[in-house]
């Protein structure tokens, strides 16, 4: 049985303020295809700079989320043929998923992106983006967003 090739996936331009960060990252919302792209190392690293600039993140922010050194981020951003390793792509997906959730629950893309970079008392004074380096931190960010969505202040 012939195995189908999964094309390498890149970030697209964040041209529309309503575009899903996850959809832009993976060109699909189909979980099986996203998983295959992540596991197969098909996510292009050259678009990390675009993602980083669009979300107004520092190289250090992206490095922390992806679990790599800032130097690795710089190298991958400049290598048009580089791809993210499966763990790096999985963490990039985590970032995209949480940004999409923030946009949905906060209701405004610019406010959601700003919220991701603002120290938060609910998160012990950390910024939400800095908490995305672990699943536990991601859960806390999700809880914080739920508090915002259901009438609390976080």
Structural summary, described in words:
The protein is mainly α. The protein contains nine helices and no strands. The chain has one domain. α6 (86-106) runs parallel beside α9 (135-149). The N and C termini lie far apart (52 Å). The model is unreliable at 1-17 (pLDDT under 50).
Described by strand count, sense and barrel closure, the largest sheet is: none
Helicity level: 55-70%
Low-pLDDT segments, ≥5 res:
1-17
Shape: globular
**Number of DSSP helical runs:** 9
**Strand coverage percent:** under 5%
Mean pLDDT: 84
Query: What is the tally of beta strands?
Result: 0
Q: What is the count of structural domains?
A: 1
- Class by SSE composition: mainly alpha
- Helix/strand order: HHHHHHHHH
Give the termini distance in whole angstroms.
52 Å
Computed CA radius of gyration, to the nearest angstrom: 15 Å
């Amino acid at each position: 049985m012939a195995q189908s090739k999964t094309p390498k996936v890149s970030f697209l331009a964040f041209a529309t303020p309503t575009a899903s960060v996850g959809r832009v990252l993976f060109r699909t919302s189909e979980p099986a295809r996203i998983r295959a792209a992540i596991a197969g190392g098909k996510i292009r690293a050259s678009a990390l700079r675009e993602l980083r600039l669009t979300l107004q993140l520092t190289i250090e922010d992206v490095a922390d989320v992806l679990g790599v050194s800032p130097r690795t981020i710089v190298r991958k951003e400049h290598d048009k043929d580089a791809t993210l390793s499966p763990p790096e792509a999985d963490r990039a997906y985590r970032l995209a998923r949480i940004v999409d959730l923030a946009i949905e629950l906060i209701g405004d893309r610019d406010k959601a992106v700003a919220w991701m970079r603002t120290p938060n008392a609910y998160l012990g004074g950390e910024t939400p983006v800095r908490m995305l380096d672990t699943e536990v931190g991601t859960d806390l960010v999700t809880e914080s967003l739920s508090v915002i969505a259901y009438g609390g202040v976080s």
